[in-house]
Amino acid sequence: MKTNQKSLCIFIHYSKYPYIPKYVSIYVTEISKFFDRVILVTNERPIDKINYPDNSNISTLFVKNEGYDLGMFYKAFQTIDPKEYRQIACINDSNVLFNKLFPIFNWSKEQNTDFWGVIDSHQKPEFSTHQANYHIQSHFIVFNQKAISRLPDFFEALKIQDIFAETDAKKVRQTVINKWEIGLSQFLINQGLTCSSYVDSRAYSQKYLSGEPTNVSLKLYPELIRNGLPLLKIKVITKGKWKDIFRTKSYWKNLIRKYGNQEWEIESLLEELSLIKRDSGNQPLIKLKRKFNKLIHKTKTIQVQ
Fold this sequence. Notes:
eight-stranded mixed beta sheet, 18% strand, two-stranded antiparallel ribbon, 10 strands
């Protein structure tokens, strides 16, 4: 039987806004160059008209917000026949894309594995039920044919309706991290499948930190960007860490300006991200940073006088 050569990306997007943000449109448009079909699955809400490029291979699926990314991917997966595809990706909107994805997809062509992703992790949350916790981070994971064939069994074992029925938000989040973020990779690995990661988190931790398992996409994002990763976690922008107080207020902006694709509307993108930061950022930290910056400015003024 001839193997079907179609590829699909299920792109997951959650928002309270009545539109698709620019940073998501940029990401989805770039992703559409690497897949025959893209389904943008997003939460049900009143929304303005969505404009896709001419002859677009992108469609939109609105679903009830249940089970975070797991729920959205599952619901989109139920609308397709997985046997039609040689490759299915699960990518979400938790990253800002500021340059082309060709380096990542060129690297992927050299990988003879059953599934792969952008960043891996060895972190073990305190609520993990797994002996081994290695996983490909679910914000960007791609399944090849053998892995695709295992996904229906994975979903059947999940008892996903129980997850949808849970009303405790903390329990839902922990369950999704345990069973989806970590559990999916472990399920496939225990089935004898192989995987690879564009970014080796352990190598980065050993080079720049103590070597302990950590989320390098948050802790080492400047190093990742300087080494060619065209993605920045939106959480870096909206939920700054305490050490960011001692960085310039435009630190992440300057990284995007320097390493962003100059053919894209980078300044327009940064303007939108600044609005998102103000709307959903860490307000106590933002206020503290403002006080710190004012103090530095005042000190410099006194020195000049």
